[in-house]
Amino acid sequence: MTRTAGAAAVMALALAALAGCGEGGDGRGRLHLPGPGFVPDPGRGQALFRAHCAECHGVDARGTAKGPPLVHPVYRPSHHADLAFHFAVRDGVRQHHWHYGDMPPVPGLTPEAVGHIVAWVRAEQRRAGIR
Ligand code: HEC
Questions:
Q1: Is the beta carbon of 96 within 6 A of some atom in ligand 1?
Q2: What is the residue with the minimal CA distance to atom 5 of ligand 1?
Q3: What is the chain's mean pLDDT, rounded?
Q4: Contact 100/66 with Cβ under 8 angstroms?
Q5: Contact assessment for residue 69 and residue 49, using Cβ atoms and an 8 Å cutoff
Q6: What is the pLDDT of residues 40-72, one digit of tens each?
Q7: 11-24 residues labelled b (16+ CB within 10 A) or e (exposed)
Q8: CA dist., res. 75 & res. 121, Å (int)
């Protein structure tokens, strides 16, 4: 599972890099990744998470009846890299780990906003001893 997801992410990156000509820039916007020099801010991430993700993942990212906890070993960095968060927000997620149904794409968030959110979720994971 871990290797497959990692390999899929690497493949997606490689494909996106290959397909990246013609849009200008270095393809990061297309990949939904923050630009170079981005400084993540977990405090902003928490506020953004509460506004856009908490409905399903819970105000403290411990889950609700509509979505799984993200402060959970399954979402540790080695199993779901930061890229998985960017893809989840941009494209949504098909139900595969749990039984809550699919996650719809979350519109209106910049790559930087997602970068802040990831920083906060990672900090919460570390606080919970998940590394
Ligand atoms: C409408 C409910 C809903 C909202 C809103 C939502 N999610 Fe999800 N999310 C889910 C569900 C359900 C899953 C689990 C899918 C599965 O694996 O079965 C999920 C899974 C994920 C995953 C795991 C992706 C993977 O590759 O397995 C990440 C990361 C994630 N969500 C991040 C977010 C973030 C960040 C936000 C806010 C910007 C957000 N979600 C908003 C329902 C939601």
A1: yes
A2: 53
A3: 87
A4: yes
A5: no
A6: 999 999 999 999 999 999 999 999 999 999 999
A7: eeeeeeeeebeeee
A8: 10
91 lines ligand 1 (CB under 6 A): no
**Ligand 1 neighbour 118 (Cβ under 6 A):** no
Q: 116 near 41, Cβ under 8 Å?
A: yes
Tell me what the mean pLDDT of segment 103-114 comes to. 97
- The number of residues making up the chain comes to 131
- Which residues have a Cβ under 8 Å from the Cβ of 20 and sit 6 or more positions away? 26, 27, 30
Q: Which residue has the tokens 């290959």?
A: 18
Confidence of residue 12 (pLDDT cuts 50, 70, 90): low
Measure Cα distances from 70 to 12, 76, 77, 91, 120 in Å.
Answer: 23, 9, 11, 17, 11
Closest residue by Cα to atom 15, ligand 1, is: 95
Whether residue 46 contacts residue 59, with contact meaning beta carbons closer than 8 Å, is answered with no
* Ligand 1 site, residue 85, Cβ cutoff 6 A: yes
